[in-house]
Amino acid sequence: MPCCVCAGASITCSFGAAPSVLNVLPGARVMSSQALASIMDNISVMNIMPFGMCSSLANPNVASATAAALGVLTPMPCMPMIAGPWMPGSPKLLIGGRPALTSDSMLMCQWGGVIQIAFPGTVNIQC
User: What angle do CA 82, 115, 12 make, to 5 degrees?
Assistant: First the structure.
């Protein structure tokens, strides 16, 4: 059974160079020692912080830098472009009227990256 995800959770992107942190705003949320996240906590820079450098050629900044370097992959600063909500959410627990974010949820970046939960921030709250 997956764990609920809370503020401060560690997240990774398949094209990112470094892990990042999930920020969860406390308004209309269930609070444990940290605010619990819902599947709609998916806003770039507000909830999803950049992952260092991006190496996806679908990212126009990476593609242009790689072309300028004569085809040598040149990572550029990450700016996540989120395509939709986290999936799947908890079928049983709602946070602010939306499904709770679970440790097995994933999020897609418009540049092709898969964002996953590396550590949910808690291991004692089951969804």
Answer: 130
Q: CB count, 10 Å around CB of 1? A: 8
Q: What is the CA radius of gyration of the chain?
A: 16
Cα–Cα dist 20/99, whole Å: 22
- CA–CA gap between residue 21 and residue 126 (Å, rounded): 20
Residue 27 clears pLDDT 90, i.e. is over it: no
Q: Which two tokens stand for residue 97?
A: 């009227």
- Owner of token pair 């605010």: 35
What's phi and psi for 11, nearest 5 deg?
Answer: -125, 155
Helix (H) or strand (E) holding 88: strand 87-95
Instruction: Give the mean pLDDT of the chain.
Output: 91
- For the chain, the structural domain boundaries read 10-52+79-119
Q: Which residues contact 2 (CB under 8 A, 6 or more apart)?
A: 90, 102, 103, 104, 105, 126, 127
Which amino acid makes up residue 61? N
